[in-house]
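Troubleshooting: if your tokenizer reports a length mismatch, compare your output against this known-good record of 412 residues.
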Amino acid sequence: MASEYIAGLDIGTTKIGVIIAEVSEDNLPKIVGVGMAPSDGLRKGVVVNIERTVRSIESAVEHAEQMAGINIEEVYVGIAGDHIRSYNGRAVVAVAGANNEINEDDVRRVIDAAKAVVMPMDREILHNIPQEYIVDDERGIKDPLGMTGTRLETEVHIVTGAITSAQNIIRSVERAGIYVKDLVLEPLASSYSVLDDDEKKLGVVVMDMGGGTIDIALFYDECIRHTAVVALGGEYVTNDIAHILRTPVEQAEIVKHRYGCCLSHFIENPDDPIEIPGIGGRAPRKVSKELLTEIIHPRMVEIFRLVAGEIKKSEFGKMMTAGVVLTGGGAMLKGATELAEEIFDMPVKMGIPKGFSGLIDLARSPIHATGVGLILYALSNEHELEDFLSDDETGRFENIWERMKSWFTFKK
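Known-good structure output:
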């Protein structure tokens, strides 16, 4: 891929999304290609059938490439799923630089110490994100390089994933003929496209509503503080509709998107009937919009309550002053933001991607929050700092694939 283009690949349980952007001199990405395809081969964000996943990736990539008029060779890939785990680490080291000046080696040592915990053999670190540094009890320092002190502390947020899940995602993308430039936690990627600096400073939750899982990230004081996954998603709402109304899942998904609503007082023309296709050639039947809402509402309440419980588990849960931002396809369900406000008792809004030009009408949707966010993540300086802090002595600018090759070689 030419250096002036960047591609983001959002591999979800129900859909695969591809965004291709051309980078201008002012570093503002211009979206030139958008591709979508149904996802076939994943369950709860985890690959369960590589061949089907490869075909889905190829289909989405082909659509984006045709629109952009180029062929992509490398891509930033979003990763999510209920195998994701995270924790906050803390460490302290003595400053070893001349005249007690903090240098890159001091920063590396304190980060390495913070992540030096016993980890199961089947897991690997995906992100190692510094939250803040403390120099001789002076807190809130974002960049300690060049400062003077005798003791350097850090607090970091460490995101881990199952090695086999990451391997299968990489294999699927590579078998589609594309090089994996980096793996990025999806709610972290989405934050780059839907959050303002003020929101991240005051405290905000990104809630990525996927088909198989709900991925959550809490930000406070400009840093990510907590991540979590709820193993329920939009496909559970669809399955409820399919079972109760006795219709194929594919038709239930169509009905949900076309007529679905979370709250009864948002229903337009509630007495108008909806035709529901039958199963196995059985005759279709008609139901009311009110009945459809009665099916959707309790499942959405369950999902939002589980997310609220995850938020409360974090010590930063009470600091989410800016509220919640919903992304993903589930955010587009009518009444979702209003129901979420009732459950969370805080402001809630739909996350619309921003910070780009080009195909604005196609890309400005919560569905593409992760795809656009992957582009903006790639253009940021923050992930370069993270790579520097995560790499070992063999290569300061080693990319994600070089790091992950060791998973294939040494992890059994």
